[in-house]
Amino acid sequence: MIVDSYKLAHWMNVRKVTPADVAETADLDEELVRELLQRDRPTLADDRADRLAGALRVSGNQLAASPRQGLTAVVTSPEELRASRRPIRRDGITFYNYYSMAGPPGRVAPVILDILCPHDRLPALNNGHLEPAITVNLGPGDIHGRWGEELGEAEWQVLRANRAEDSWIVGDSYVEPSYCPHSYSLASEEPARIISYTCESNLAPLFSELNDWGDPAFDALLRDVGDAAPPDLLRSALSRRGFEPAAAAERSGVARDALKPFLEGDTAALSTAALRALGDAVGFDYRTLLRAPRRHDAVGKTSRSIEESRASVRAFRSYTVASMASAAHLPDLIGLFLSVAKPGEPRPELDLCESSESHYLVVGGEPTLAWREADGGVAEATLAPDASAWVAPYVEHGFGGEGAVVKLGSGSHVGYLDQIELSNTFAATATLRRGRRDALGWGYDVDEAVRAQPAESVR
Predict the structure, then answer these.
(1) Mind listing the pLDDT tens digit for each residue in 297-308?
(2) Within this chain, do residues 208 and 242 fall inside the same structural domain, yes or no?
């Protein structure tokens, strides 16, 4: 196993153990442990790695070095995309062909689907999945989308392809929530395909925990959180901190006759200033009680038509862009149509730099992508239609030449939960600087000579 020395130092700090402690518990030489802390990506035999992880009460992958260190971009050709084709059967027919876009090891990447269910057949539903997704019709034909057993207005819709001159806005788009059943069929005999980005869910770590809980604990969670509405979350926050509502009102200066109806479901009873005063007095982040606006339909979808995307067209940096579907309650899912019109430019300007990873699919022309490498140099690649690229967060990059690109992103790196946590962090810049590649111990004597001396008793 290749050991990440910074992860090793982190877990030694968490467990409050020294190299000598770890060496003794893991039956390893102390000098080896010190060498692991000092070398860059040292290799350790699997049996020794297992003993090291066991001594720190972690799994091996919690100490393993990432294969993505220094990775700035991944580019795949149209041929590589097509070589990833795998047919999927559903309802007794070949229902889709799936294709994988560019992405680094261990990361989620968008997929492209050929829609193969015929137009005269009702597409069989899938079971939905935890991860939210953003989906766009790439054309050339229209498709039918199905999102429920009953075919009402929200459950049965056409996703259209754009056949107009501004075809860089390729089609209708929508965002779907967790566990939304969905399926697609052709709307005519004209072929069609979609791009779907099933991003990582912010709830995934919680569900990993829930799978280990007993039923009584899970039932208690449901009673406590309810539908995660502001009154439910406030009751939970007060209870955990040992506050009855009356005491919280007195401590914060919030009127009792306003707090009571809020807890009963009237969220207009308390102003933002009052919620902030409660949070300040009791010790919780009042922003958890401010719900994001909801624009979704009856099954949870938030859609944007070609016309609505067209109405959003604007200049951005050196590009023309238009928005895909988005939702304030799913703020990490980002989609843009991007038009590149820079003929004759000698080298693309590196005028894009995102807080999270970016996925690109070329849908027209042959634009050139350039990006900043980890050593400071600049690399570039000319991309044909169906070429795709992944660019790491905060890597400067940009497009030149001429073409049309679909851009997708999520919050799997610096997402809105990270931004909220950073906004709560004392001395955020200093904390980020210290936390990156932190190899400092937690404060023991380096020579550990005191280990040989008996500790004095506390009097």
Answers:
(1) 999 999 999 999
(2) yes
